[in-house]
Specification:
mainly alpha
């Protein structure tokens, strides 16, 4: 196993860059696809951006060792798989599917390789638990930002 060293900033801040590319696609297509008001989409994506900035910063601050960062990388990669699955299930384009195989999944695989090369494992030794944590972080965060966006844009009764 290689000696531990810091994961390069291209990996830690690369999460933010890859997310920005994926979410630019979602920002441009989500409202029309889902019939959700654009303002609500904007708020949800902005809030998710705050989470991704925090995860990238935690990764940069700890040389990639932050569990939050590592879980975010796992969740982001799995998020790419869900984009592909949703498009396959519907048999058509869904928001985010163009950048899932071209940006999201390649970034997550590349980041995992770079982390492993630096002696920083993507998982804590239990790949199944890491996948569940990654999916959990992605699902809970997505639900939370959409709920806050809905609350922020709902009309007064």
């Amino acid at each position: 196993m290689p000696a531990e060293s810091a994961v390069p900033a291209t990996v830690t801040w690369g999460l933010l860059a890859a997310w920005m590319l994926n979410d630019a696609e979602e920002l441009a297509t989500m409202a029309r696809f889902s019939r959700v008001p654009q303002r609500r989409v904007n708020i949800a994506i902005g809030l998710m951006g705050c989470v991704v900035v925090a995860a990238s910063a935690a990764g940069a601050r700890t040389g990639g060792r932050s569990r939050f960062f590592r879980t975010a990388v796992t969740g982001f990669g799995l998020h790419g798989v869900t984009h592909l699955a949703s498009a396959a299930a519907l048999g058509r384009y869904t928001p985010g599917v163009a950048t899932a195989p071209t940006v999201v999944i390649p970034y997550a695989l590349w980041a995992a390789r770079r982390m492993r090369a630096a002696g920083v494992p993507l998982t804590n030794g239990d790949a199944r638990a890491s996948v569940l944590h990654g999916l959990g972080l992605a699902a809970v965060t997505t639900a939370a930002v959409h709920a806050v966006a809905w609350l922020a844009t709902r009309r007064a009764a």
